[in-house]
Amino acid sequence: ADAIREDYDSIVAIAPEFASVSTLDEFRWARMIVCSRNFGLLVNGHRTSALVPHADMLNHLRPRETKWTFCEETQCFTITSLQAIGAGEQVYDSYGQKCNHRFLLNYGFCVERNVEMDGFCPNEVPLELGLDLALASSSSSLSSSGSVDGVDDRVCWE
User: Fold this and answer.
1) Per-residue pLDDT tens for 68-113?
2) Position with higher pLDDT, 27 vs 156
3) Is 12 left (phi over 0), alpha (psi -120 to 50) or beta?
4) Residue 52, class by beta-carbon neighbours within 10 Å (0-12 exposed, 13-18 middle, 19+ buried)?
5) Cβ 29 vs Cβ 57: under 8 Å
6) Would strands 92-93 and 59-60 be described as parallel, antiparallel, or unpaired?
7) What global pTM score does this model have?
8) DSSP assignment of 97-115, as one string?
9) Within a 10 A sphere around the Cβ of 91, how many other Cβ atoms?
């Protein structure tokens, strides 16, 4: 079932007038706007989310060059630079280390070369394949090269 539809139906069950304020499609649009633009914060000791106008306009870049938090002293959302940013240069935020399907689903974009500085690529899943030679030899002929029926058991993935 569609989780957003279930949320919408739950709201309408409690407050039927909501259906005259928002259709399911409008609710779905608004929900995704909030999900793709909110910031998780700790405010006065409580974990919460907030929409922060203009802060959600920063483009993604890793490694991060800014950090954001809620300042208890000033009661304000703050973005702090972690390095020198020259006048007129774009300020970026990191949306985190994510695979491209998560970037696309949550933010509507993909990273062309989604590889971390250490070479880690969150789009790759290590996959180790093996061949049980005992099982294979009982049902196939094993060549002297170690392949079964001429099929090489080594697999290369890029």
Assistant:
1) 999 999 999 999 999 999 999 999 999 888 888 888 888 888 888 8
2) 27
3) alpha
4) middle
5) no
6) parallel
7) 0.59
8) S--HHHHHHHHS---TT--
9) 13
